[in-house]
Amino acid sequence: MHTSSRRYIGDAAADLARQLPGTWEASVELYSHPAWQEDLVPWVWDSGELGRALQSERIPYAAILTDTVNGTTLLFVERPGSHLDYLVGAFAPEGFEEGYAGPHAPRSIALPPVTGQAAKALTDRYLPAYEQAVHSHQTAAIAAALDEIGGEHETWQTMVASGRYSNATPLDAAALGTAVEEFLDQSWHRFLTVADHAPPLLNRCRPDRSPWPEDAAALSRLTDAVLDVRALLEGVLQGSLTLQERRARAWPAIETWLIDGERFLRQARLSAPHPHPALPVAAPAAHTTTSARPAQRGH
Fold first, then answer.
1. Angle subtended by helix axes 173-204 and 215-238, to nearest 10
2. What pLDDT is attached to residue 156?
């Protein structure tokens, strides 16, 4: 039996949570079976050492740090190969389809065992980089959704104007009605991505501080359109709207975004938070003799 120079990870995480800005909670998870650890991989939103460690190193337990106001959730583990350091990275926010090594994933950082220094590194470096990554992902997701809707709208307009399908088959009245319904349904489902991601970005935009102060009117229209769609979605989920009502009421909001979407995107890109330069990452220390761990406290 060897004693460990590390503190119990739950105590280290609880002390760290108390020193972070806002209100954070810490909890401990045990991954007694390797498959439990593997289950984390698709959900950890990381492009650095933490993501790689989850796939190549045995990590039998970890702490979860949760911002109870903003919902940010971090994974805090003992750094493989180090006597004292920790690694911290983020889980993908709700509604994100990105996971490990996603194109906008932030890079996990190593934290020292001194709680004050670890809290400062998280506050000054990692959390701003995480916020910037969230902003970039949301902006890119909205741009992609609008591009897809715009392309489908252009194809639909061309088909209606020609009276033929893309393969030159004549388009009769019944088929035209079906094509309209299919287009509206596809647009609706794609636009839900915009409705999910746009509100925090709209709140961050400051057109009066940008080279395009005249965008304020467009942003106001876009905000109203998102509110309309979110209200429609609530009605759909409650079953108080027919399919025809949803189609008729959703399209004006979607069209508003097709018209003014570029104004939003330039404002959103301009308002992106700017993280500090990344902390240098020291080389992992040599592997040490396995130490005794605290008794399991439940998964």
1. 120
2. 80
